[in-house]
Specification:
alpha/beta, 7-stranded mixed β-sheet, 12 strands, 42% helix, globular
Amino acid sequence: MISQEFKEMLKAQSVIRKLSVYATERGKEIGYENVFDYSLGNPSVPVPPEFTQAMIELLQTKEPSYLHGYSPSPGNPIARQTTADSLNRRFDMNYTVDHIFMTSGAAGAVAHAVRAVTKPGDEVLTFAPYFPEYNPYINKSGANLKVVPANIENFQINFEAFEEMLNDKVMAVLINTPNNPSGIAYSSETLTRLADILREKEKAFGHEIFLISDEPYREIVFAGVDAPYVSKFYDNTLSCYSYSKSLSIPGERIGYVAVNPNCVDAQSIVPMCCQISRGTGHNCPASIIQLAVAKCIDLTSDLSVYETNMNLLYHELTALGFECVKPGGTFYIFPKALEEDANAFSEKAKKYDLMLVPSDTFGVKGYFRMAYCIETEKVERSLEALRKFVKEQY
């Protein structure tokens, strides 16, 4: 008999993917340029030319076995050392190669991190609004994901609810900053308070509580926004990163876990991740991509378009009467819908070829997400559709 557990998952297809498929089909009818598809967070800006050149040089100058052979289980040592050096240089840390584990994107990083610090039956807390794929990432590891209700005032942490839910079964707290879907970056004040609470509860419970920091949008931070490096605040932190957004290479599936050198058992966690790979069937991202990233370690794509798009949308949405916390980064904005039922709101928007993701699966009702990683020209054209939608429906 096939797995009933995974068969059941077929009934709960991602609403984001459903909207993206609808947008594609609608595009075949009216031209995709006329579909204002804010559904999928797929980076739109070009890859840095240096990355393309690095790939060309590697292919032209290195032996095929070096480029295409297996890398060691923790990842290519050049990529790991270069990553450690970059983090130390940028954030005043003291990582070594032994603290870096290369992964298949941030998803692979989170999957390894949670397995390294939990066992089946343990609880992991995260904060709404949150990325809905955290549910399978955590629950399929045997741990149980619990969601702390949102602080809808500013989408920082709801500390009162957090402390109520923080019990001795909690072995890890999973955060995402800057955040998908809200676009909010946790401030220094928020991270300081979070770290203080975790240290206090570690003493009270008599065991470590690890902080798993999901950081694929770390480089997409807007002017004047306080978005500090999480590991600076709390020793027992595992940073999970992806180059998908910074270098616009999501299809290459490349990221890492960076274990805070001051973390408990810091020297054991990367070797443990290698053993976790054996149990999950994950064995390193592509060798050539690791090497190419190492050559572009401190570069990013031109990410300025995201702030341009955000400002256009934030100005228009607030002018139309939407309540909206201004994003501090990412390429997402998370306004309050104009009716309580966000799904009904999003269905009405489809009539105007606006693909807006309802918020229920993000752990908050009555909001919607727009992924504005599209051309600015298309954002500008979508504003008239947005105005017409609001005028005729509300």
